[in-house]
Amino acid sequence: MAYIQFEKINKRFGANHVLRDISLTIEKGQLVTLLGPSGCGKSTLLRTLAGLEAPDSGRVILDGEDITGKDPRRRNVGMIFQQYSLFPNMTVRENIAFGLKMQKKLPAEEINERIARVIDMVELHGKEKSLPAQLSGGQQQRVALARSIITEPKVLLFDEPLSAIDAKLRKALQLRIKEIQRSLGITAIFVTHDQDEAMLMSDVIHLFSTGKIEQSGRPIDMYTAPRTRFAAGFIGHYNILSPAQFEAVTGENRGCDVAIRPETVEVQPQPFPERQDAYRSAAVVEDFTPHGNILRYTLSVGSVNLQADVLFRSVLLFEPGQTVYLSVEKKNCLSIA
Ligand SMILES: Nc1ncnc2c1ncn2[C@@H]1O[C@H](COP(=O)(O)OP(=O)(O)OP(=O)(O)O)[C@@H](O)[C@H]1O
To answer: Is Cell cycle among this UniProt entry's keywords (predicted)?
Structure first.
């Protein structure tokens, strides 16, 4: 039996049907991401597990127990929000110890040991006596994380915990959270609208669109095999061509949309030799934008625009207005719904 089960969860806020018969299972020790655009219901689902929102129908099972109607304080679930929600008048150490003192009567020695261990994990040595206002956003979030893991919850819930933190520090924290989650073997659910964050952190991604799960899978499978236009649009910067557009580029009509990742489109100044397993076409360079070490070219084939990623080493390979040739392997042209 799965460690966490959401069974046919429905939730409405007035006329807004926010969760529509959602069923999903999560295995023990996994880090699972609920990914999707703003307002699609990710946080609401997370909150039904924490007990902060009651579903209209359906059941939530945690570790074999139906917790749907259970008092939130007795669920043994840790939750970390975007707002750090630390006590401003308590030191780092007092904030971390708070959860533990609330939860159970433990000998002082064990409390001290546990605090030392989690401070070590979240790398907050030397900050024990600081107040939250004296810490950076990233440090405050690490205190919030420490305060949650010290109680050894059955599951850790993260609701967009890093969205207020700047990009560089955010990467480091993503990796740190993943490391801590792995080393403790704790089950975690992470809500985000950032596909890169989901890719980097998750064992499994559940992609949401307005109240339902669009597709679930390992990050690599979500990236290489989106099944729908929505999934392809949300993950991996796919070119999405209508049947007529695909026909204009390749001469073939599949009767469905086709998704092509920009990095699978090869470009060169001279025609490609004919191959059974690839499509070829001439194109005109319209524009380009640098993305770190990648140059993303917009090419036009007749009235169809297509993006192609080229590794940017040192020189600009193609200029706007130039005629170029593209080739894309058939296996990289994904038929989608
Ligand atoms: N307490 C509430 N009362 C009324 N409507 C709510 C309430 N909580 C959430 N909603 C609505 O439910 C929908 C889903 O909200 P939810 O927070 O679950 O989305 P989300 O996918 O987590 O998006 P975000 O990343 O913006 O939080 C939204 O339309 C939101 O306005």
So the answer is: no
pTM for this one? 0.90
- Determine whether the shortest distance from the Cβ of 192 to ligand 1 is under 6 A: no
By DSSP bridging, strand 204-209 and strand 31-35 are parallel
Provide the pLDDT confidence category of residue 312 given band limits of 50, 70 and 90.
Answer: confident
- CATH-assigned architecture of domain 239-336: Beta Barrel (2.40)
Using a 6 Å cutoff on CB, does residue 243 contact ligand 1? no
Do residues 77 and 49 touch, judged by C-beta distance below 8 A? Answer: yes
- Domain 4-234: state its class: alpha beta
**CB of 29 closer than 6 angstroms to any ligand 1 atom:** no
* Domain residue ranges in the chain: 4-234, 239-336
CA 65 to ligand 1 center in whole angstroms: 27
**Which of 210, 199, 226, 222 is CA-nearest to residue 33?**
199
